[in-house]
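Example 3.2
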Amino acid sequence: MSEKIKILIIDDDRFLLDMYSMKFGKGNFETKTASGGRDALDMLKDGYKPDILLMDLIMPVMDGLSLYGNIKKDNLAPGAIAIMLTNQGMVSDISRAQELGVEGYIVKANMIPSEVVQEVSNIYEKHNKNKK
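Structure, written as tokens:
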């Protein structure tokens, strides 16, 4: 697979954005980052079409689920795979994410960054296998 997978990483923590951008960039990913929901919406409205949206759940102004709800409502990332990357592991959060159509839910505290990259790759491959 020579074409890089476009991933938009959305988190209000600059350190995590930089670290995950570097980790994904070492793999088969072209990374862009947004420091919150508004930045992400602006990028998508300006025409950026990622293959994967990797979103934190807890962010100021707009949480990850509200962000994804807005993205879906306005059809800003058709075909993009939505994955939550958060420290919130409550069943109610996971259920809300699934109801919105989020395909992956990763609890940061349970994985090291390289495992997060592998899990996102697995979700992407599974999604594309199911599409065929």
